[in-house]
Write a structure and sequence with these properties.
Structural class: alpha/beta
Number of domains: 2
Number of strands: 12
CATH architecture of the largest domain: Up-down Bundle
Shape: elongated
Largest sheet: 6 strands, mixed
Helix content: 55-70%
Strand content: 5-15%
CATH class of the largest domain: Mainly Alpha
Radius of gyration: 35 Å
CATH topology of the largest domain: ABC transporter transmembrane region fold
Length: about 575
């Protein structure tokens, strides 16, 4: 938790005022038993009604002051805790966005969601209770012990014994529960993962009638979480009863031996009542402190998990200065020089020894079997991942020399899975260019073969898209994502199998529009359809991460067996030979 204390930097005033007013409340609370002792020893003993009323009024006044201090402390502590949670959540979200795809793949989406929601909530609750109780409870305990020594040193020994025993109980429970709380949060990750997969793949699950299996899987992961939480709950539940037993035993001892002290005339009845009140205050303070310990234990376990994410640094370093925006003379638009790549330092390479040059305005088709490395190759161009060996150049400059925003401004990527966001079609199109006019959007929609169905929508560009584009067909989503990329007017357009949901006629019209209306744009088309890339200026053929052929369609039919096999498996011999 100490590592996360920096997020209270903007709330230093609140972090001081909250505990300060709790401290004042504790001071007023410690005076009350002395006032009560005076009422008994002076007012009641002497039958002095006016003194009793005066002291009673003082007690009410102290109670009101304590209430005001408590409310003030609650307000400032809550304000500081909420500010802490907001700052921490924003910083963690920003940090996650700096991580490369390699780190995101390694950590996992579900655990990141749990840490940015549940774990931060736990840490925020811990901060709130610390600001309210961390100073008050120890001060009440210490103050009550000191006051008891001032009243009677021999009876105050019981206070020390009680405090020591309760401290040992708290330490025992804390040492047992902290690892279990962390384990419970990890199992919450598993529940989140199962839930996310289930909701995301609900159509597939129902198509295969796997609801019962998924429910069993969810119940099993949830039962595992429940059992862990029950175990830690049982351990934590021991705190209050054990605390009450020890403190009530202490009160009994004070009353028992205090009676003898009164009989011997060493202390008065009022002082015995004051000692009992102080013992009760210790009881309440330690119970509050034990609840603080439980909450802080959870917060500490969550803080460890949050700090684990902060400790993960991106494996990709962004260039600190801008490069010359103009291309070097005679340099290709994109060049791969002996590029090899493996995921998360795996020994098996996803790509190996890839070298090629692509000139500005060329269309490049990339084809190969499933798992041959097609998507991996194009993901290296916008630097979603860093190459393991070799280098990639754009306009003659290494991609590592570009700032991320500068590099990705040149490139638009249409991924395999079409992703649209909740909002209007216009708002989704303006992701590529914030100030895009309707004319620019319509031009992109025409190239992407999406203009017709957009015009058919009742609100046109103002048609509301549901989350994930659920109210559109797969082909419509793909065409809109292509249009969104075209709105940005990139220098390099990457279509990563982004026409798989289109019929052949629409796909053919899309390819024709791309070739005739984006002449200055370098286009990479990843596809498993030979018909989609056969007319490209260059075709790169991949097989098990290696480039086994590069050239035009006719050349590869003669020189590359893998390409010829792919073509003949999809097209008739006449279609293969037809341009």
């Amino acid at each position: 938790m100490l590592k996360l204390a920096r997020f209270l930097k903007g709330y230093i005033k609140e972090s001081i005022i909250g505990p300060l007013f709790k401290f004042l409340e504790a001071c007023f609370e410690l005076i009350v038993p002395l006032v009560m002792a005076n009422i008994i020893d002076i007012g009641i003993k002497n039958n002095d009604t006016s003194f009793i009323l005066k002291m009673g009024g003082l007690m009410i006044f102290l109670g009101v002051l304590g209430l005001v201090c408590s409310l003030t402390a609650q307000y400032f502590a809550a304000k500081a805790a909420l500010g802490f949670g907001t700052a921490l959540r924003n910083e963690l979200f920003s940090h996650i966005n700096t991580l490369s795809f390699s780190e995101l793949d390694k950590i996992g989406t579900s655990t990141l969601i749990t840490r940015i929601t549940s774990d931060i909530n736990q840490a925020q609750t811990g901060v709130n209770l610390v600001l309210r109780l961390f100073l008050r409870s120890p001060f009440i305990v210490a103050g009550a012990i000191i006051m008891s020594f001032l009243i009677n040193a021999r009876l105050a020994i019981f206070f020390l014994i009680v405090t020591l025993l309760i401290s040992l109980v708290i330490y025992f429970i804390m040492s047992k529960s902290i690892p279990l709380y962390k384990k419970a949060q990890n199992k919450l990750d598993r529940v989140s993962l199962v839930t996310r997969e289930n909701l995301t793949g609900v159509r597939v699950i129902r198509a295969f009638s796997k609801q019962e299996d998924e429910m069993k899987d969810f119940e099993q992961s949830h039962d595992d979480l429940t059992n862990t939480q029950l175990l830690v709950g049982r351990i934590s539940a021991l705190l209050n009863p054990v605390t009450y037993i020890i403190l009530n035993a202490g009160i009994i001892a004070v009353i028992w031996y205090g009676g003898f002290e009164v009989y011997d005339g060493i202390i008065t009845q009022g002082e015995v009542i004051a000692l009992i009140n102080y013992m009760s205050q210790i009881l309440l303070a330690l119970i509050a402190f034990s609840n603080l310990i439980i909450s802080f234990t959870r917060a500490s376990a969550s803080a460890v998990r949050i700090n684990e994410v902060f400790a993960v640094k991106s494996s990709m370093n962004e260039a600190s200065s801008k490069v010359n925006e103009y291309a070097e003379a005679n340099s290709p638009k994109v060049e791969f020089r002996d590029v090899s790549f493996s995921y998360n330092q795996s020994e098996e390479e996803a790509l190996s020894g890839i070298s090629f040059r692509v000139e500005s305005g060329e269309t490049v088709g990339i084809i190969g079997g499933t798992g041959s490395g097609k998507s991996t190759l194009v993901n290296l161009i916008p630097r979603f991942y860093d190459v393991t060996y070799g280098e990639i150049l754009i306009d003659g400059k290494n991609v590592k020399d570009y700032a991320f925003s500068e590099l990705r401004k040149k490139i638009a990527v249409v991924p395999q899975k079409a992703v649209l966001f909740r909002g209007t079609i216009r708002q989704n199109m303006q992701w590529g260019k914030e100030d895009a006019t309707d004319e620019e959007i319509y031009r992109a929609l025409e190239i992407a073969q999406a203009r017709d169905f957009v015009d058919e929508k009742p609100d046109g560009l103002d048609f509301e898209i549901l989350q994930g584009g659920k109210n559109l067909s797969g082909g419509q989503r793909q065409r809109l994502t292509i249009a969104r990329a075209l709105v940005a007017e990139p220098q390099i357009l990457i279509l990563d199998d982004s026409s798989s949901a289109l019929d052949f006629a629409t796909d053919a019209r899309l390819r024709k529009a791309l070739s005739t209306r984006t002449r200055n744009m370098t286009v990479f088309i990843v596809s498993q359809r030979a018909s989609a890339i056969k007319n490209a200026d260059k075709i790169i053929v991949l097989d098990n991460g290696r480039m086994v052929g590069m050239g035009k369609h006719d050349e590869l039919l003669e020189s590359c067996g893998v390409y010829k096999e792919i073509c003949l498996s999809q097209l008739s011999e006449d279609e293969v030979n037809r341009r």
